[in-house]
Amino acid sequence: MTKVVLIRHGQTSWNRSRCIQGGNNDTVLDEEGKRQCRCLAERLKNENIKAVYSSPMSRAMGTAQWIADSHNLDVIEEPAFREMNCGALEGSETRDIGSRLQKLDSLTSFPYSLLEFFTAKFTLERSTKSPR
């Protein structure tokens, strides 16, 4: 049986500052992120890993490289794994997003609130419904 393991990238300065990252801003791992990757590679060194895929973003490629190196593998860059474009929200601190999304909501006829759209509950509800 094939086992798939999904891993989020190590910490970046934007994570530390609680800023929204996305597909347009290619932030890199900070020192803590590199430490996290070393620990992760150590934790996974005895796993039977046959392939490592990554988003083309530097933070993801950097994380994947630690794992691939510990298994003598190359990282396979997969553009489909790139983070979604968060547009004008990229670089915003998470505490400021609510007010920014409320302003955007007033300018659109989108059937759902943008603020609601970015909640995990909303995303889960929409992603688990069968298509009509």
Walk me through what this model shows.
This protein is mainly alpha-helical and 132 residues long. It has two domains: 1-87, Rossmann fold; 93-132, no CATH class. 42% of the residues lie in helices and 5% in strands. The protein is built from six helices and two strands. It has helices spanning 13-16, 31-44, 58-70, 94-105, 114-117, 120-127; strands spanning 52-54, 75-77. It has a two-stranded parallel sheet. Helix 2 packs parallel to helix 3 (58-70). The chain is elongated, with a radius of gyration of 18 Å.
The poorly predicted ranges are: none
SSE succession = HHEHEHHH
> Any idea what the CATH architecture of the largest domain is?
3-Layer(aba) Sandwich
The CATH class of the largest domain: Alpha Beta
Distance between the termini: 32 Å
Strand proportion, as a percent range, falls in under 5%
Total DSSP E strands: 2
> Percent range for helical residues?
40-55%
The main sheet comes to: 2 strands, parallel
CATH fold category name of the largest domain: Rossmann fold
* Whole-number count of domains: 2
Average residue-wise pLDDT: 79
Total number of helical segments? 6
Strand order of the largest sheet: 1-2
Radius of gyration: 18 Å
Global shape:
elongated
CATH homology group of the largest domain: Phosphoglycerate mutase-like
